[in-house]
Amino acid sequence: MRVTPLFAAATLALASTFAVAASPDPAAEQAIRKTLKTLELDVPVESVSASPVSGLYEVQLQGGRVLYASADGQFVMQGYLFQVQDGKPVNLTEKTERTGVAKLINSIPVGEMVVYPAQGKAKSHITVFTDTTCPYCHKLHAEVPELNRRGIEVRYVAFPRQGPGSAGDEQLQAVWCSSDRRAALDKLIDGKDVKAASCANPVAKQFHLGQSIGVNGTPAIVLESGQVIPGYQPAPQLAKLILGEAK
């Protein structure tokens, strides 16, 4: 069973029923995990914990996505949980999901990426799922020097948008198998050929990682906080988001 259509865009807005989150009751966790097993989710369950709402439990899935379940495991839902504070809604689900994505993305070894360092002191970084056959990835790549100039490190990971065995997959593997990955990536985006011997590389692993956090197109930009920005944005607009968040 896929997670996304479980309960599409369900919204729960609560103003005054929040309690301090505590460790889950072992019996509740067992009941919830038993139910989740019958649902045959397509991603592993990382944790079950008490949510801020009494009787409602938070289920964190690998890749950052979140479900909610009743203590007896009979009810499971996917949607946004809001807390209204001083008349303003705070999306608790989104905050939890971003934390999970950030943990996953920021744990990728730098040696498995193609990195364009910031000029001077780095103020923040972004991780970009890219495909060398993607025109909008080319547009974003042209903005990288400006992002670097503004103190933003750009880290590329591979996401062959047409899947394994596609032209993008072959090109990305050539990049990751090159002795100078940055030069190889630059050449391919400039329309030049890159030849590299086959090697063990993380392209397939990164592709599946992107899928696990909901990436379905390129470029997909992940901020340091775990916020995912789908699609191309000009450097000034993107930098404003990145550096505004980093303050």
Please characterize this protein's 3D structure.
By secondary structure, the chain is of the alpha+beta class. The chain is 34% helix and 24% strand. The chain contains 7 helices and 12 strands. The strands form 3 sheets. The chain has a 5-stranded mixed beta sheet, with helices on both faces. A 4-stranded antiparallel beta sheet has the order 2-3-4-5. Strands 1-6-7 form a 3-stranded mixed beta sheet. Strand 6 and strand 7 form a beta hairpin. Helix 4 packs antiparallel against helix 5. The radius of gyration is 20 Å and the shape is globular.
Which descriptors apply to this entry?
247 residues; alpha+beta; 7 helices
Compact overview of the structure:
By secondary structure, the chain is α+β, with helices and mostly antiparallel strands. The protein has seven helices and twelve strands.
End-to-end distance, in Å? 40 Å
Topology pattern, helix = H, strand = E? EHEEEEEEHEEHEHHHEEH
Q: Tally the helices: what do you get?
A: 7
Main beta-sheet annotation: 5 strands, mixed
Q: Report the portion of residues in β strands.
A: 15-25%
Strand order of the largest sheet: 8-10-9-11-12
Question: Based on CA inertia axes, which overall geometry fits?
Answer: globular
Mean pLDDT: 88
In helices, the fraction of residues equals 25-40%
Q: Roughly how many Å is the radius of gyration?
A: 20 Å
The structure class reads alpha+beta
In total, the number of strands is 12
**Low-confidence residue ranges:** 1-22
